[in-house]
Design goal:
The chain is mainly alpha-helical and 238 residues long. The chain has helices spanning 17-34, 46-53, 57-69, 88-112, 115-134, 137-155, 158-170, 172-177, 181-200, 203-227, and strands at residues 43-44, 73-75, 81-83. It starts with 16 loop residues before the first helix and ends in an 11-residue tail after the last helix.
Length: 238
């Protein structure tokens, strides 16, 4: 059965030209898929989407092809388009990349002991605490992303930042799956451990704290995949 995202996620018809319509559909569907408003495995009915957006089927097809290139949609000839299942193997690889690069990043930052950066990450932690206590899941998610980006940006290596950002984007749906109050509390504690090591100028402790943080998320994802194999494309043989 086709499940369309909420009206908040899918804007009403409008926009200029076919290219603009395609861009609008891509943006709306991407946001809804990543936010899990359209769950993995959902059938995407082109006719229903065309009606919802007030467009012909062509820009819908173009949008789905672009989302396929991003790994978010699966298109089979003479068959229905579906939201891609999550590949656990891809999550493992992206977590491995982040563990290596972000671990070395915080080790470097600990050696530098940049006071301005510490002020920024400490402010971010205060906001994380407020969002967590208020039960603001979206706000906490945004601040979590900002925390990691502050650290990676602080190293001053654009190619490293781009690589980490690409890995992070590929993990967005995974992070939403695990976005429970319990996970937020663990994440907040793990972030504090990283910042404690930065304050102390302890490169080894900073590297270990970042590795423990990313390993903790991956361990939780492995447990989640066992409980919900229907969300994953490769559980059972990965």
């Amino acid at each position: 059965m086709t499940v369309l995202p909420s009206s908040r996620a899918l804007p009403a018809s409008g926009g200029r030209g076919q290219g603009g319509a395609t861009d609008r559909i891509v943006t709306a569907l991407r946001e809804a898929i990543v936010a899990l408003e359209i769950p993995p495995g959902t059938v995407l009915d082109k006719a229903a989407l065309a009606t919802r957006f007030g467009v012909s089927r062509f820009p819908v097809s173009e949008a789905l092809n672009r989302l396929k290139a991003e790994g978010l949609v699966e298109i089979k000839p003479q068959s229905a388009s579906t939201v891609s299942l999550i590949r656990l193997a891809d999550a493992r690889e992206n977590m491995f990349l982040r563990r290596a690069l972000e671990g070395e990043t915080v080790a470097l930052l600990a050696k530098r002991r940049a006071p301005d950066l510490l002020v920024e990450v400490e402010r971010n932690l205060r906001y994380q605490k407020s969002a967590m206590e208020a039960g603001d899941r979206q706000g906490f998610h945004r601040l979590d992303l900002e925390f990691h980006d502050l650290l990676v940006s602080g190293a001053g290596f654009p190619r490293v930042r781009a690589t980490v950002e690409k890995a992070r984007l590929a993990l967005d749906r995974v992070r939403r799956l695990l976005g429970s109050p319990r996970r937020h509390a663990l994440t907040f504690a793990e972030h504090n451990a990283i910042v404690d090591a930065l304050r102390a100028g302890d490169a080894g402790a900073a590297r270990a704290a970042m590795a423990a943080h990313i390993d903790s998320v991956m361990d939780e994802l492995e447990d989640f995949s066992e409980a919900h194999p229907e969300v994953f494309a490769d559980v059972g043989w990965a």
